[in-house]
Amino acid sequence: MTNDDIWAALARELDLWAEAGRTATLWWRDDDAVSPSPALARLRDAATAADVPVALAVIPAGATPELAEELRRWPGASVLQHGLSHANHETPPSKKTELGPARSVEAVLADLAEGWRLLRPFDPLPVLVPPWNRIAAEVAARLPAIGYAGLSTFNARPRPCPVPGLVQVNTHADVIDWRGGGGFAGTEAVIGAMVRHLAARRTGAADPDEATGLLTHHLVHDDPCRRFLDRFPAAASEHPAVRWLGAPALFRSPSFRCPP
What we know:
By secondary structure, the chain is α/β, with parallel strands linked by helices. It has helices at residues 3-19, 38-49, 65-72, 105-119, 137-142, 187-203, 223-237, 247-251, and strands at residues 24-33, 54-58, 77-81, 127-128, 150-151, 167-168, 173-174, 212-216, 242-244. The strands form 2 sheets. Strands 1, 2, 3, 7, 8 and 9 form a 6-stranded parallel sheet that branches. 42% of the residues are buried.
C-alpha cells in the first residue's frame, strides 16, 4: 500500500462517519513523562500547532518540579497518573507489570496512594494509566472506592463496563514498534490501527462511544515518528467528521473525584 493509499483509507472511513451524520472522536495519550526535554517540547509543538490536546501519563516517582512548571505553560496538556515508578514486579515468563498479581492488592493500592501524593503538584485528573497497560482485575475493581474516576489501557474497551463507577477510555494505535525493537511502527500500521477501531465503532463491533486513541512515548520517538506526528493530528483535524477530545471531557462524570 502506498503512502497516498494509507491516507486515502483514513479519509474514506471518516467520510462514512460524515455520511452517517456522526462525529469521529479522537484523543491523544503520551506516556512516561518525567521532566522537560527536547523530545517533550517537540511533541508539545506538534500538538499545539494542530490545536490538539494531549493527556500526559506522568510517572510520579520520577516527576520533577520543572515538569510541573512546564505543563502549567501548556494549556492543552492534562496529567494522568502512570502508576508509581514504572517498576516491573513480575517474573518471567509473566509479562512486565507494575500493578499486577505478583503482590497483594493492598501493596499495589499503597503504591498508587504514594504516587497520587507525589503527583499532587501537577493537578492531575483522577485517572490511572497502568505501566505497560496492564493491571490486575482485583486492583482495577478497587479503584473507584479509593477515588479514581478513570482508567486507560490499550485496545478496545470491554463491554459492558467491567468496573462500575470507573470510566475506561483506552488507546488503540501505538506509534512505536515495540516488538520490532523500537522505532516508528510506520504510517500504514498506525493509521491502519486507527481506521480499524473507527470502523469497529461505526459498525457496532466495538463500543461506539469510546474515542479512538493515539498512543505515543515522546522519549523514544525517532525522526520518522516525529515527522508523522507533525502531520497526522493536523491532517486528521481537517476532516469535518473529526473532533479531538481532551482527557477532562473524556473522563469527567457526575461522580468525578480525587483519591484521598
